[in-house]
Each structure stands twice: as C-alpha cells, then as structure tokens.
Amino acid sequence: MNHRLIPDALRPVAEKIEAQERISDADALALYESSELNALGMMANVVRERKNGNYASYIHNRYINYSNICILSCQFCAFAAKKRDPHAFEYAIEEIVRVVKEALPLGITEVHMVGGLHPMLKKEWYLDLLDELRALDPDLHIKAFTAIEVRHLAQRIFRLSIREMLELLREHGLGSITGGGAEIFDPIVRDTICRGKETAAEWLDVHRTWHEMGGRSTCTMLYGHIETLAHRVGHLSQLRRLQDETGGFTGFVPFAFEPQTTILAHIKPATAIEQLRNLAVSRIYLDNIDHITAYWVSIGLPLAQVSLSYGVDDLHGTILEEKIFHMAGAT
C-alpha cells in the first residue's frame, strides 16, 4: 500500500488493514466521512486481493419475481402492489417453470426467486413450485425467499416455526435463502420507510436459524435514503456480529436506493462516488465475509466494472430479467 496516497486522518486505519487487524465502528465512520475516494479504493483493494486474489466472479442465473402483490406498503418500494392495482402481477407455476426451462439451454445454474408478501397464495403453491423447479434439473440451485417472506410463510400461510418452515422448504428443494429485506436495521429508520416489516432482530433470527441448519445466505443493505452514515455502520456491525457467530453469509450486496417512482422521490439518488465509497467501506469493515457484490442491474455495468478496484470481487449474476429495481427506475 502506498502510504503517500493515504491522508493522515486515515493512516491508523490503513495500518490496521496492513496488519490484518479488525477496524472499529469509529474507523468505519471515518472512512465514510472521508472524501479521499482513491485512498479508500486502494485500502479496499488490499483486502479484496488478500481474500480473493485478482479474480472476479458471477453466476449464470435466471431471476424470477413471482408476484408483486404484497400486504405491506413500504415507502421505498416501487415494486409492491395490491391485488387490484393495474401494475399488479402474479405468475402461475406453469409460467415460471416455462421461463426457467427455456433458460436451461443457456447454461443457467441457479434460479433466484423472490416476491411480495402475497396474502392469498396457498401453501401448496409454494411447495409445488419448488417441486417442479427441482424436477427440471436436480442440479439447479434454487435460491429463493427473503427473510420476511420466510416469516410470512411461517406465520400466516403454514403456521409453523421459522425452523420448521425452513426445513420444509429445504425438503422441497430450497438451496439457499436470499439476503433481501434487511434495508437499514435502525428501528426508527425502519418505522419510517417500512413500517410493519420485520424488525432487525427478526431478520437476523431467520438467517441465524438457517445458518444453524447448515444453510448459507447472502446479506444486504439498502442505503441512500433517510439513513445517516452512523446508521450504515450500525447495520454493518450487526451483520459482522452475526457472521462472527455463524459464518453463514457468503457475500454482502449493498443496494443504492432508487427514489424515482417512490413516495421518497424527492431524495437525490446516490452518486457514483457515494456508491464506490459504500462498496469500499463495506469491503474493509466486513472482514469476515468473503465476497462483496456490485449489483450491476442497479448501478450499471460501467460503474460495476470500476467497482472491481474498490473492493468488489463479485458481479452477482446474468439475471436475464429483473423487475424490482427496474420498476423503481433503474436502467
């Protein structure tokens, strides 16, 4: 690391990175507050190369949003709809199986599937869907359902405990759960942007339970809305503590908020500089999570390429189709 490019205020953090020592929450906040983007990138790249060499990864997958019908009305969400809304959609199992089957000759190895908290889909629908996807190709990895979807299924649809719900889904082919729904863990922020959604403790508990069962998952953060930099650090801190406990997170995926078509449209979107800074700080702070992902669907391929010099080593997947961020205004 070229210390001449590190400002004096960040040299203690750089020394910790070189010594492979864990940085503190105060260190992370100092990194967030720094305007020295190139220095952040250089420090993050040291961690990246130490963990993953000079390699970047992606997966060939088919993304499925099975329905956007949802009982919640989160302020940040342009995806969710009520049953009678003109933009509401709900795919039949046959349609989902058809599009996945069409993607198999393209070489996909994973189907990534999430949706809203649908109030009317029956328990058989979810289990039959998993069964039919597994029947297409036993080697196809099924990555599905956010923590709040798991809680919704357990509490409202199946009437099971979280562990029982996860065990049942795995019996029917679930390979891993997704990291969505974390947003920002601070309770005041959550009460403002996603009132009624599960708490941070509930989100963490679903992933903890899954990890205790031997499962793996990703974790996420939605940033660039009403949260402060301290809220971001607090969020990362809770993820790092759970990873210390379980070791079950395979990667971290930060999402920049897309305000254009939401109730929070007055908020300016995160700049490219802010997105690179967030990725770099995440790489440096989350020393126990192997991979940092740039979600190219949201930030665009050019910035995703640049992010490979700012701590990122994973570019998610080929996806083929995605609705959540595109409905929010991503191009």
Give a quick summary of the entry.
A 3-stranded parallel β-sheet has the order 2-3-4, with helices on one face. 45% of the residues lie in helices and 11% in strands. It is built from 14 helices and 8 strands.
Structure explained in plain terms:
With 331 residues, the chain is of the alpha/beta class. The chain has a single domain (47-328), classed as TIM Barrel, CATH 3.20.20. Helix content is 45%, strand content 11%. The protein has helices at residues 11-18, 25-33, 37-52, 93-103, 123-136, 147-158, 162-171, 187-193, 200-212, 229-246, 272-285, 296-299, 301-307, 324-328, and strands at 57-59, 61-65, 110-114, 141-144, 217-223, 249-256, 291-292, 314-317. Strands 2-3-4 form a 3-stranded parallel sheet, covered by helices on one side. Strand 6, helix 11 and strand 7 form a beta-alpha-beta unit. The longest helix has 18 residues, at 229-246.
Distinctive features:
331 residues, alpha/beta, TIM Barrel, three-stranded parallel sheet, disordered C terminus
In terms of DSSP E residues, the strand content is 5-15%
Return residue spans where pLDDT drops below 50 for at least 5 consecutive residues.
322-331
Give the helices and strands as they follow along the chain: HHHEEHEHEHHHHEHEHEHHEH
Number of helices: 14
The CATH class designation is Alpha Beta
Shape: globular
Percent in helix:
40-55%
Mean pLDDT: 93
CATH topology: TIM Barrel
Helices and strands in order, then pairings?
Elements: H1 11-18, H2 25-33, H3 37-52, E1 57-59, E2 61-65, H4 93-103, E3 110-114, H5 123-136, E4 141-144, H6 147-158, H7 162-171, H8 187-193, H9 200-212, E5 217-223, H10 229-246, E6 249-256, H11 272-285, E7 291-292, H12 296-299, H13 301-307, E8 314-317, H14 324-328
Parallel strand pairs: 1-8, 2-3, 3-4, 5-6, 6-7
